[in-house]
């Protein structure tokens, strides 16, 4: 998240992030990495992760940068 957010903005962003994670069954791997909750079989996480990323783009004003790692292409892409 952006370092210049007010406490109220940070809380609003965290609340929205938690809401999105809950709806799509997304979990944190670490401080900055998210994936679909286990079990993941083959590519059944694609829909949830794609929707999660699109939802984050809707609240991109709270983030310094949003990026994703394309496993197929082996590269990182930056959206914000």
What does this structure look like?
By secondary structure, this protein is an alpha+beta fold. The protein has one domain (7-78). Helices cover 39% and strands 18% of the residues. The chain is built from 2 helices and 4 strands; from the N terminus they run H-E-E-H-E-E. It has helices spanning 7-24, 46-58; strands spanning 26-28, 34-36, 67-70, 75-78. The protein has a two-stranded antiparallel sheet with strand order 1-2. A two-stranded antiparallel sheet has the order 3-4. The longest helix is centred in the first third of the chain and has 18 residues, at 7-24. It is globular, with a radius of gyration of 13 Å.
